[in-house]
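Order emerges. One example.
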Amino acid sequence: ASFAGQRAANLLRSASLPSSGRALDVVQVDAKGYFEYYPSTLRCMVEPEHAEATVLPLPTGVLVDRVARVAPSGRDGGGGRLMLASGRDLAYDYLVLATGSGYAGPIKCFGGAAASTAAEGEGGHA
């Protein structure tokens, strides 16, 4: 769950369909089973034990899986299906892709989790 993805999901959950007033059914899919709070990564460089605090649980209801394929239903943009790596198939009316971001900077989590940053970084500081 990226910051933008979580924000979009929260906004959509508080919305409703204009035609019926029915609440939207929002499904989030995330490939990781955790959320990494990257703004706190700098602190880990001077305080490696802080790394565990940067790994947070995902919000309730997030499916831990990877999107393998997006199949729109037609040219009109009216829905489609997501095929997940697990083989699960999800239908959608509207799709928001919030893929997160990356950067080439020298400070980031190694191996995909902040906890490994502490383990890899402890021996490297003088």
Remarks:
- The beta strands are 29-30, 34-36, 55-57, 63-64, 67-72, 80-84, 89-92.
